[in-house]
Specification:
The chain is α+β, with helices and mostly antiparallel strands. The chain has a single domain, classed as Transcriptional coactivator/pterin dehydratase (Gyrase A, domain 2), CATH 3.30.1360. Strands 1-2-4-3 form a four-stranded antiparallel beta sheet, with helices on one face. Strand 1 and strand 2 form a beta hairpin. Helix 2 packs antiparallel against helix 3. The radius of gyration is 13 Å and the shape is globular. Bound molecules: the ligand C[C@H](O)[C@H](O)[C@H]1CNC2=NC(N)=NC(=O)C2=N1. The site of the ligand C[C@H](O)[C@H](O)[C@H]1CNC2=NC(N)=NC(=O)C2=N1 has 6 residues, from loops.
Length: 96
């Protein structure tokens, strides 16, 4: 099994410049989103769930009504990896 290494500070800062809406909070990629309704928020979550399952990489997230809070980290690596950056990119595409 291959181990994915957490990104260095430099790699992370560089990735963040391409990830609108995301920051690092408690060592995880973090973004809050707001939708027009609960159904829109949940529809977005359903789309992300399919992408996450296909990638074998899953978000930590929290939903209240029309708001979704997402945290991304790679548990197997103990930090933020390219898998999290890739999922964040997909999230941004699906949130549009
Ligand atoms: C076997 C399976 O692919 C692993 O347990 C995956 C599942 N989803 C995962 N998701 C996240 N965020 N981090 C992981 O390390 C991880 N590992």
């Amino acid at each position: 099994m291959s181990t994915l290494a957490p990104l260095s500070k430099e790699e992370l800062n560089s990735a963040l410049t391409q990830l609108s809406g995301w920051s690092v909070k408690n060592g995880k990629l973090h973004r809050q989103l707001q939708f027009a309704s609960f159904v829109e928020a949940f529809g977005f979550m359903s789309s992300v769930a399919l992408v996450a399952e296909a990638a074998g990489h899953h978000p930590e997230w929290f939903n209240v009504y029309n708001r979704v809070t997402i945290d991304l980290t790679t548990h197997d690596a103990g930090g933020i990896t390219t898998k999290d950056v890739e999922l964040a990119r997909r999230v941004n595409t699906l949130a549009k």
